[in-house]
Amino acid sequence: MIDIKSKQKLIDLLYETGAITFPKSKNPDSLPYEIKLQYLTSQPKVLTFAAKLLWSEFKNEIFDLIAGPHTDIPLATTMSLEYNWPMIFIRKEKKQYGMGKLIEGNYKTDQKVVVIDDEISDPANTLQVLGRLEGSGLNIVGVYVLIDRGLGNLEIIRDKGYNCETLINLNDIFIHLFETEKISPDQLTQAKNYFKTKKISSYL
Amino acid sequence: MNIFDSKMKEKMILDLHEVHIIDFGKFKLKSGILSPYYIDLRLLVTFPHLLELVAEVLWEKIRLKPFDLIAGIPYAALPMSTAISIRYGRPMIFLRKEKKDYGKGKMIEGIYHKGQHVVIIDDVISDGASKFETIKPIEEVGLEVSQIIVLLDRGQGGPQTVRSKGYDCTAITNMEEVLEVLYKHGRINYEQLTECQKFIIKTSSNTEANNNKNLPKQKRAVK
């Protein structure tokens, strides 16, 4: 388990980087908060910090490889380099030529894999990735993500029988930024209300 | 290139062969023809130590010219760019494989500002055509391509083609040099060497470019 101070530091870093923003706009249609984890690659130190923190979530598990979907190559590579641990990645689609493979890197049947993702934005994609890994004879130890947006996506993965954990969730972010006075009470209320409507629509 | 750099490069080539990233046999290429060797730099991710070494070799070249951002290209080059970014603390942007089908699809991810100078890092270069597909979206958002650094030149005139359009393009090594190093260390035999060399000559469309190469001439390697 990660200590609360490290999580708060990560939230601070993400906020300072601009990966988490609370745009002050008069436009009622604008989002009260935005999370752009793609910005992590522009801040190698923050990326490294996030990678180390996420690693400590599963370091006690037994696993041979870490795996990232193609969009998470930077995060998974950072972990791989930091801990000298072999990595594989999953292509978007199979090549039409040459050594057509869905999974890139060296692996053997029955190896144990930890799957890394910055977030689960589409559970169907994640399940496809897990299916491809299992279809190639690999065993899934768990899926570990940086941020859970609270829309029930992690639960969908868990319902299929996978271990699925997040480093931080939206509530951690809202509360910490409010307590450190980075966002106002109004912004907090707006963000929470917006989150509720989003959560409801995700169930429709 | 100093002695230390060339030693490092030689070790890199030997290690790439050791783990079968550079492999010999019969391989069907995109064009349908059979190749006596195959290079799959996507395998690098399973060998973090070697990825680190590749990043170091690339960095020795990259650092010589000022730049603001590193551009990562999926798939094989993205881990290399990431390794350089985190090892040397330089911000990275990366190109998406395809534009998202929905919403405000962005081709380039990360933080960047108009006018910043970008160094593009790629794993291999063939005839150079695909490099322009990489350059285009970078220039379209107002960034300037400061240089293009490729790990391996396949010997089909790629760097010359890219340079002819006014870009600074360098390959760290090429197939001739790879073969020479592997032969020198007894990793491949004479038949393999000549078979690969013949294949390179046969597949290189640009003979003029071949003559202009600054690295080992075929004669030296055949000795």
Give a summary of the structure in a few sentences.
The complex is a heterodimer of chains A (204) and B (223). Chain A has seven helices and eight strands. With 204 residues, chain A is of the alpha/beta class.
Q: Which structural category do the helix and sheet elements of chain A fall into?
A: alpha/beta
Give the largest interface.
A-B, 36 and 40 residues
**What CATH architecture of chain B do you see?**
3-Layer(aba) Sandwich
The SS-based structural class of chain B is alpha/beta
**Reported CATH architecture of chain A:** 3-Layer(aba) Sandwich
Q: Over the alpha carbons, how many angstroms does the gyration radius of chain A reach? A: 18 Å
The geometry of chain A reads as: globular
Major β-sheet annotation of chain B: 6 strands, mixed
The rough form of chain B would be described as: globular
- The count of β-strands of chain A is 8
Number of domains of chain A: 1
Task: Count helical runs of chain B.
Answer: 9
- Strands in their spatial order, largest beta sheet of chain B: 5-4-3-6-7-8
